[in-house]
Design goal:
By secondary structure, this protein is α/β, with parallel strands linked by helices. The protein is about 30% helix and about 25% strand. It has two domains: about 375 residues, Rossmann fold (3-Layer(aba) Sandwich), CATH 3.40.50.12780; about 60 residues, no CATH class. A hairpin with a 5-residue loop joins strand 2 and strand 3. It is globular, with a radius of gyration of 23 Å.
Length: about 475
C-alpha cells in the first residue's frame, strides 16, 4: 500500500501560506489556500458522517467553484473515486459507467441535477447533494491542518473523466492516484511551471487541479468565455494578475480580440492543431518577451511532447505547412513507438485503462512483455532529427491528410475537411466559405469530386478540433 499518490501529494512538498492565492473563477469570488483547505476539511468531515470512504465512488457534475475543488481534494484524500461528468456529454455514454461504479453520492448544481434526472443510472444514486453543501461548516482559514490522507494502492482509480468524443464514442479515462501524481510532475517539470509563482490563467479544469497541487493559484475562465469574464481580467488586483496562460488556440484568439492580459510571461498552447498564422499573430500581439510553449497530448496522455511554439511555426512554415504540424520532442517520462498505424506512448502519467468501454481498451491499449501498458494516440506521426511531426488522424489516409493541408493553404483557412461519400471512394470537401469558390477548388484539386458548404462544428471542450461527425 502506498500513501495516496494523487495530485494533492505535491501540495505537501512545500509550506504554503494560508493567505496565498488559490482559486479565482471570473464569475465568482477569489479564495486563498487557507479557505480552500478549510472547506476541504469540512468536506472530509461530512464524508465521514455519510460513511463514504476508500473504494467508493462519487459522481460530480457541479459548477466549477472553490467548493468544487475543495470537494475533489477531500475525495481524493479519502481514496474515493471521482467520476467527473459535463452536461454536454451524451447520457447514453456515461450510463454504463455510472451503473458499474454504483456511486452512493451525486454532487451537482441545479442544472446538473436537471440533467441527471434524464439518466436512469443517475436516478438510482441514493443521495443527491452539492459541493457547497458538502463543504458546509465553520471555516477556519488560518489553520494549517492537513487533510487526512488515506492509504490506497497507487493503481487505485482517483478520477474518471471523459474524452470529448469528436472521433467516436466518448471514453471514460481512468486516472489512478499514481498517474495523477506523475502527470502533475510532468506538467510542472517538463512544462517549466516551476519558475512561475503568480497565478496561471486557465480554461481547463484539470490544469486547475494541477496548479493547486503545486501550491499555485489559478484565475479560471468559465466555459462560455463571455465578454464580462474577459473584461474582469483587466481589473484584477496585483496579487491575482496571471503571468502564464494554459489554453487552446481558440481561446488565445478570443483573448487577443478582447485585448486583455497582455503582460503574460508564458503561454502554453494545446488542445488542437493551431494555424501558423494565428500563432504568428499571437507572437506579435504579446511581443518577444513572452514564451510560447506548444504542447501535444490527449485526454489519456497529457503531456506527450513539447516544443517552443516559435520554432514549431518556423519549422512548419519551412516545409510549406499551413498548420503547426511540428510537435517537438517527448516530455519527461514518456516513451514512444512509431508504427505505420500511428503513435503509441507509455509512461507513468499515461492512462492505462478505460471504464465502461471494453472495445476501446482492445483497440487503444496493449501490454508489452514487461507489463507496461501502451496507449494508441490515434495520430499518425513522422519522426526526424528535429522531433515528431503530425501527419493526420489514423482514420485518414496519408493522401487525404496531405490533400486537406493543400486545401488549407489554397483557401487561407482551416475551417474545412476532406470526407468520403458513403459507400464510395469519391472525396468531398466540406466546410465554410466554399460556395463561392467551388469552381476554382474543383479545378485546382482534381481528387475532389464535390464541394459542400456546411457549418463547421468544433469540439465543446476546446472549440478548436473539428467534430467531423457533427459537421456532416
Amino acid at each position: 500500500m502506498s500513501l495516496h499518490g494523487n495530485t494533492m501529494e505535491l501540495l505537501w512538498e512545500r509550506e504554503i501560506p494560508p493567505t496565498a492565492p488559490a482559486f479565482f473563477p471570473l464569475d465568482g469570488d477569489p479564495s486563498d489556500f487557507g479557505t480552500l483547505l478549510a472547506l476541504a476539511r469540512n468536506a472530509e468531515r461530512n464524508l465521514d458522517r455519510a460513511g463514504i470512504g476508500p473504494g467508493e465512488g462519487v459522481l460530480l457534475a457541479d459548477s466549477v467553484s472553490v467548493e468544487f475543488y475543495a470537494t475533489v481534494m477531500a475525495l481524493l484524500s479519502r481514496g474515493v473515486t471521482v467520476l467527473l461528468v459535463e452536461p454536454f456529454l451524451p447520457l447514453s455514454e456515461i450510463d454504463s459507467i455510472v451503473s458499474k461504479m454504483k456511486p452512493r453520492l451525486f454532487l451537482a448544481s441545479v442544472m446538473g441535477r436537471i440533467w441527471g434526472l434524464r439518466s436512469a443510472a443517475i436516478r438510482r444514486v441514493p443521495t443527491w447533494s452539492s459541493a457547497r453543501s458538502l463543504c458546509s461548516g465553520p471555516v477556519d482559514s488560518s489553520s494549517r491542518k492537513r487533510l487526512q490522507s488515506m492509504a490506497v494502492p497507487g493503481d487505485h482509480p482517483g478520477v474518471i473523466t471523459f474524452t470529448s468524443g469528436t472521433t467516436g464514442r466518448s471514453k471514460g479515462v481512468v486516472r489512478t492516484h499514481e498517474g495523477l501524481s506523475a502527470q502533475n510532475r510532468a506538467i510542472r517539470i517538463s512544462g517549466g511551471f516551476e519558475q512561475f509563482q503568480k497565478p496561471d490563467l486557465a480554461i481547463f479544469a484539470n490544469l486547475v487541479l494541477a496548479n493547486l497541487g503545486m501550491g499555485r493559484g489559478t484565475v479560471f475562465v468559465p466555459s462560455r468565455w463571455k465578454a464580462r469574464h474577459l473584461n474582469r481580467l483587466a481589473h484584477l488586483p496585483p496579487m491575482w494578475r496571471p503571468e502564464t496562460l494554459s489554453a487552446g488556440p481558440a481561446f488565445l484568439i478570443r483573448l487577443m480580440e478582447a485585448g486583455v492580459a497582455r503582460d503574460l510571461r508564458s503561454i502554453h498552447i494545446g488542445g488542437a492543431l493551431s494555424d501558423c498564422c494565428d500563432l504568428e499573430k499571437a507572437f506579435d500581439h504579446f511581443g518577444p518577451g513572452t514564451r510560447f510553449l506548444h504542447v501535444y497530448g490527449s485526454s489519456e496522455a497529457e503531456p506527450v511532447a513539447f516544443s517552443d511554439a516559435r520554432d514549431a511555426v518556423r519549422f512548419s512554415r519551412e516545409k510549406g505547412f499551413f498548420q503547426t504540424l511540428y510537435l517537438g520532442k517527448p516530455a519527461q517520462g514518456i516513451e514512444t513507438s512509431v508504427s505505420s498505424e500511428g503513435l503509441w506512448v507509455t509512461g507513468d502519467h499515461v492512462c492505462k485503462r478505460y471504464s465502461g468501454n471494453d472495445d476501446e481498451v482492445l483497440r487503444n491499449k496493449r501490454t508489452d512483455s514487461t507489463g507496461r501498458v501502451w496507449h494508441f494516440m490515434g495520430d499518425r506521426v513522422a519522426e526526424d532529427e528535429a522531433g515528431f511531426w503530425y501527419r493526420g488522424r489514423s482514420f485518414q489516409s496519408p493522401s487525404e491528410f496531405e490533400l486537406e493541408q493543400s486545401v488549407y493553404r489554397f483557401m487561407g483557412h482551416s475551417a474545412a475537411f476532406i470526407d468520403r461519400e458513403p459507400g464510395s471512394d469519391r472525396l468531398i470537401l466540406r466546410g465554410e466559405g466554399l460556395r463561392s469558390r467551388t469552381p476554382e477548388l474543383l479545378r485546382q484539386f482534381a481528387e475532389i469530386h464535390s464541394v459542400i458548404e456546411t457549418r463547421i462544428v468544433r469540439d465543446r471542450r476546446h472549440r478548436s478540433r473539428i467534430d467531423r461527425g457533427a459537421s456532416r
